[in-house]
Design brief:
Belongs to the PPR family. P subfamily. InterPro entries: PPR_rpt, TPR-like_helical_dom_sf. Keywords: Repeat. By secondary structure, the protein is mainly α. Among the domains are: about 55 residues, no CATH class; about 90 residues, Tetratricopeptide repeat domain (Serine Threonine Protein Phosphatase 5, Tetratricopeptide repeat), CATH 1.25.40. About 70% of the residues lie in helices and about 0% in strands. It contains 26 helices and no strands. The protein starts with 6 loop residues before the first helix and ends with a helix.
Length: about 500
């Protein structure tokens, strides 16, 4: 049995325990590890536990915080760091911001680029505003991304407003900024503006890169100045700018489009001698250029060369050759290419199908044309109004109006709506076969469904009425028209003069 302690001994033990408790709090706050003198003696001993000590001493737990050294990285993330000891809050907060700021900037840039690519420019602007609120200020990359998005989807005025904001923020445009602006102006056919921007870039002391020159070459080709484009190409070579394959393709394509196919082939051979390894797109450009000038054999040799070099021709390659065969009336050769494409499992687009269907119709092979049409509709390859208008036009040209009207039923069953082009094609097709009354009825039916006056269809109807000798009826239709163009007047006056009704023709112009 434990002997009784005197009051003096009890007071002494109590004072010792109090001092030990105070020293434990003092050590914990100073950053030293808290260790009890009696640690390990008893499982119920809590003198070494800071939380137990706080409870025992009645100390508010908010006044005592863990030291940075005690933070276990497995149990805490960066968001805990600013809430450590008050004396270390500011430097830790600064470090946290320094660590997180690049991450936040990268996240904002990814969001910005994503919104710009999806044409959501208002959301892209909102991302920039949110970034400014949290201290992530836009830089030259931010503004370049925004300018490129506006150039592609909104227009040059919006892009120029961003350029103005960029300069107001004290950020100087770079070569990427000007490349986006020049490309945007070229896409909008503001070609003089493209040249002015290139000159402005030079005056600003910014050195153009290969993409600047590529866009400038493309601009000159659109302007119909192949000599100027070739001069830019020579400057690229002389300045050792390391041309990109796009540079060569732009030059070759431009030469082919302007009728310099032989020069394009010569340039291609010269580039090959200097180590240029052409891609399939280069061969496709040359094959298309050769086909347009009716050099079908040279185009086939170019195709064989591409295959021998290890390239696999695609649907674009074969469709170009097939169309050239049909244009030069080598129909069987074209059908052979079509069968070859089917056997190799190539995916056909609407252009390829329409090319083959048109060839079948010209040869009077209507069953095969209908079969090809059904196959295309079954495969659901690019089924839109452009496709249907092309097919309807092909059938109407060959006088197959029943097949054309069947396509109108399919358009309705698919939930599509006929446009002005569709009704113009049908009206013209009915007039071609001499069914003028049917054409008039078709237009009246169209107007009752809410369509506006179709100028192209009415012009066609006036011309056919005149050719059928119904000039008075054509004049009445002319007088009822709300809008007219030069073709309307020319067609009517020409037919009136042909019928020797000169006085009536002179009144038309008045």
């Amino acid at each position: 049995m434990e002997p009784m302690m005197t009051d003096r001994e009890m007071a002494k033990r109590k004072g010792s325990s109090s001092r030990r408790l105070k020293s434990s709090f003092k050590g914990g706050l100073n950053g030293s590890r808290v260790v009890s003198a009696n640690q390990g003696n008893s499982p119920n001993d809590t003198s070494g536990n800071p939380r137990s000590n706080m409870k025992a001493g009645g100390v508010n737990s908010r006044s005592t915080r863990l030291n940075v050294g005690e933070v276990n990285p497995r149990n805490h993330n960066l968001s805990h760091l600013p809430y450590t000891h008050p004396k270390t809050c500011k430097p830790i907060r600064d470090v946290t911001r320094a660590i997180l700021k690049p991450l936040m900037r990268n996240a904002k840039m990814l969001n910005l680029a994503s919104f710009c690519k999806s044409q959501q420019m208002q959301k892209a602007e909102a991302v920039i505003i949110d970034g400014i609120r949290i201290g992530v200020l836009p830089n030259v990359v931010t503004y370049n991304t925004l300018i490129d998005g506006y150039c592609r989807f909104s227009g040059m005025d919006a892009a120029y407003s961003v350029l103005y904001r960029m300069r107001e923020a004290g950020i100087s445009p770079d070569v990427i900024t000007y490349n986006s602006l020049i490309a945007g102006a070229t896409r909008n056919f503001s070609l003089e503006q493209s040249l002015d921007l290139f000159e402005e870039m030079l005056q600003s002391g910014i050195t153009p890169d290969i993409w600047s020159y590529n866009t400038l070459m493309h601009c000159f080709f659109i302007l119909g100045k192949p000599d100027e484009a070739y001069r830019v190409f020579k400057d690229i070579i002389l300045k050792d700018l390391s041309p990109h394959p796009v540079t060569f393709n732009t030059m070759i394509n431009g030469l082919c489009k302007h009728g310099y196919t032989s020069n394009a082939v010569m340039l291609f051979r010269n580039l090959q001698r200097h180590g240029f390894i052409p891609q399939l797109v280069t061969y496709n450009i040359l094959i298309n250029g050769l086909c347009k000038v009716s050099r079908l054999r040279a185009a086939i040799r170019m195709l064989n060369e591409a295959v021998d070099s290890g390239l696999e021709p695609n649907a674009v390659t074969y469709t170009t050759l097939m169309k050239s065969c049909f244009r030069s009336r080598q129909y069987e050769h074209g059908f052979e290419i079509f069968s070859k494409m089917k056997s190799k499992g190539y995916a056909f687009d609407g252009f390829a199908y329409c090319t083959v269907i048109g060839a079948f119709l010209k040869l009077g092979r209507f069953e095969e044309a209908n079969s090809c049409t059904e196959q295309m509709i079954k495969n659901d390859v690019g089924i839109d109004m452009t496709f249907y208008n092309t097919l309807i036009n092909l059938y109407c040209k060959e006088g197959k109006l029943e097949a054309a009207y069947k396509l109108l039923d399919q358009i309705e069953s698919r939930g599509l709506e006929c446009d002005d082009y569709t009704h113009s094609i049908i009206t013209n097709g009915l007039c071609r076969v001499g069914n003028i009354e049917g054409a008039m009825q078709h237009l009246n039916c169209v107007y009752t469904t809410g369509f506006a006056s179709n100028l192209v269809a009415l012009n066609c109807l006036i011309d056919r009425l005149c050719k059928a000798g119904q000039i008075d009826r054509a004049i009445r239709l002319f007088e009822s028209m709300e809008t007219r163009d030069s073709f309307t007047y020319t067609s009517l006056v020409h037919n009136l003069c042909k019928a020797r009704r000169f006085r009536c023709a002179s009144k038309i112009y008045k």
